[in-house]
Amino acid sequence: MEVVLSTNRDTYYPGDLITGALQVRLTQPLTIQKAVVTFSQVEQTRVRVVGLFPQSSRHLHFLATDILARDGAVSLAPTSWKPGFTRFEFQFSIPRTASPTVNIDDENHCLASIEAQVEITGTPLQRWTKEIAILPTQLILAPFVDSLISRSIRAYLNPVHSCFDKSDAILAVWRVENLARAPVRDVTLELQQKVVLRSKGTTTKSTKKTVLSISLIREPITRGLSQHGTARLEIRDLELPYSLSSMSPIAHQKKSASILLRYISIDYILVLIIQTKAVRICHKVPVLIGPMHYETKSSVEGLPAYVRSRVQEDQARCELLERILVERDQEIELLQERTKEDGNARPVCCICLEKLASIVFVPCGHLCTCESCDKSLRNRECPLCRKAIEQAFPIFT
């Protein structure tokens, strides 16, 4: 007996309709005692507690069953299957409350599958299984503040979108301004994954790991200066599971409903790490990883639209940020052209950017301000190097 179990897709949203077929090819007549197709979901968590036995939870939920019989007969009585090719079609509706598929490891997972069971008279029960994936829809982002001031250092971090697809790159706008005396030696952006496992709803285990890290600066940021840019984290090759937000109301239920999400949660966090000689500052911003590019003909109105609406809400902000970045680059190019020294030409005043620089500072020797801007300096420090000005001399041409 040759059996092929197939479905119309491998990935679904809650509320979608699963259609499939069980194709059987026989070389001789057989008497079938049982032939059913089941749609089930199993969740398992295992939390190891120091000094105690591991606490585990395993829940198997049969969501739907379809009895396969020829000629439309619905019966568990023995049925005779003739030689040749036979095709049995089935369909299941995924509950709206179905938990998304996640596979952390062999002991901690939530999996959905279609299983065909055929019992032939006089032989053991035979099984064929096809796993399917249920996509998450409860994409709830934790509240956050995009700016931080600590130890005279200002940090700004804002993702271009609140939710990214696994096939995309995470884009975030960052800025670090140093107002402290000590220079900022390093600025790093990390993507961290936080997984919380709950066994029997009481025992919990939390793990956090860095899945990707990039350095953002090449030179230290000295006092009074700042650096900024757009960071890009490539995640398409990391095979990360989708976000299962701990902010979801299902994650805080005390009693398990027919479906499961309260046992596992996965959150992703962008961390801007600023390192000085003696201080390490971390600025954290949550992000979501979800099925942003998946298209489906969902039977439940609004579920895919909910995911897509998050992109539409962020699109205006994304376009605004891109326009600001383009204008900033144009201003920098214009400034570089205006301040470029050509032959014996004097530089432009670094404060007003209009008049020619005519004041030399001692002891640093910088020629960077005009006479009027020199008089307006309250703190007698060089605008370029921040050294104390002992004397200022005008130059004449």
From TrEMBL:
This is RING finger domain-containing protein. PROSITE patterns: ZF_RING_2. GO terms for biological process: protein ubiquitination. The keyword Oxidoreductase does not apply. It comes from Giardia muris. The keyword Electron transport does not apply. SUPFAM superfamilies: E set domains (SSF81296), RING/U-box (SSF57850). GO terms for molecular function: ubiquitin-protein transferase activity; zinc ion binding. Pfam families: zf-C3HC4_3. Keywords: Metal-binding, Zinc, Zinc-finger.
